Every structure is written in C-alpha cells, then in structure tokens.
Amino acid sequence: MSTIRIVWGSASAPTAMASYDAALAEAGVENYNLVAVSSVIPADTAVEAVGTAPDLGPAGDRLTVVEARATTTGPGRVSAGLGWSQSADDGPGLFYEAGGETDGEDVETRVREGLESGRALRDWDFTEPRVRVESAQAAAGTYTTAIVLAVYGDGDPIV
Questions:
Q1: Does residue 13 have a pLDDT over 80?
Q2: Looking at domain 2-156, what is its CATH homologous superfamily?
Q3: What cofactor requirement does the entry state (predicted)?
Q4: For 103-129, what is the mean pLDDT?
C-alpha cells in the first residue's frame, strides 16, 4: 500500500517567495521540486497527517503534491486548508484545497463544501472527510505564507 503524507507549515520573510520557501522548510519539503496534480487519491493508498515530512529522498528529487497555499503581506491573516475523503474498502478518494487572506474557519468551510460537491459527482461510498488548516498572522512589512500539502510517496529523480 502506498502512502500520501499531509504536511503543513507557515512562515514570514521579506519577500513572497522567501516566505513560501520558509513555509516549505517548516513542512520538511524545501529541498524538492514540487509537481502539482489535481485531487484524486488512488485506490489502496493510505493518507497520514504527519505535519513535517520525513526524508523523502535526495535534494532535487521530484515530489508529486496537491497543494493548498496562500500568501499575504502584513498586517493581515492568511490560511490554507486541505481536506480529503476516501471511499470505503480502500477505494479511491478526493482532496480539495482552499486558501486566502482569511481566517481558518472560512477556509475550512470552503474545503468541506468543495469535498461535498466532489463527492456528489462520484458514485463511491465515502468515509467521513478530514481537514487540515494552517493559519498565520502576518506582521506589517513582511510576507507570510501558509501551506498544506498532500505528498504522494517519496521523491523521484528528475534527471
């Protein structure tokens, strides 16, 4: 059985890209090339919320991810959220993501509404949804990024 790990982080820095890189470092995936995919969980795949990724391979490897991301300039608040629901009996499932310059409750509501809509499109018997939201306050004069990622497996060599 394969594993998808849910990781998250938030950070502030003097530029938007630097805050994103620092948030990736908090989640343990700053040394990988992220390749975003849409939101389908393959059958026979475990999803584990781990917070910070373990060693997933050499620096520069490619990681397949579903990414919830939001960046703001301070002062303000930023939130990113990722939700998932799998079908019963180890069948496929779905991720939905949302983010913005808002509080975590708003983002969680949008994630849950997205999951409900996606579940309604499929003839699968789903388990209860789970949601992870990361929020952070941005101080004046800084950029702040919040991320939640679903990381599919380990890194793959890119070259």
A1: yes
A2: Pyruvoyl-Dependent Histidine Decarboxylase, subunit B (3.50.20.10)
A3: pyruvate
A4: 96
